């Protein structure tokens, strides 16, 4: 069931929101609804991961990532001494 709700915003906020909604091909009502759904969602609820993102998880392996981080730290230390 949908219910009408009246909200008051500054004119510039409304204009920017309308532009944003138009650029993203979504109604302003749906934009506000999605925002309210997001901020009122259960804190413990898990983000949904798309199958594509799930398939890419673990693809990138950086064996020297920690060493690179240390090397960069040393570089910065020397640079700013």
Question: What does this protein look like?
Answer:
- The chain has 81 residues and is an all-alpha fold.
- The chain has a domain at 9-42.
- Helix content is 58%, strand content 0%.
- It has helices spanning 11-23, 28-40, 51-56, 65-79.
- The termini are far apart.
In short:
The chain contains 4 helices and no strands. With 81 residues, it is an all-alpha fold.
Distance between the termini: 65 Å
Contiguous runs where pLDDT drops below 50 for at least 5 residues: none
Quote the beta fraction. under 5%
Q: Report on the biggest sheet.
A: none
Task: Specify the overall morphology.
Answer: elongated
How many β strands by DSSP?
Answer: 0
H-E string: HHHH
Structural class, from secondary structure content? mainly alpha
Helix tally equals 4
Share of residues in helices: 55-70%
* Computed CA radius of gyration, to the nearest angstrom: 23 Å
Kindly state the mean pLDDT as a whole number? 84
Defining key terms:
mainly alpha, 81 residues, 4 helices, elongated
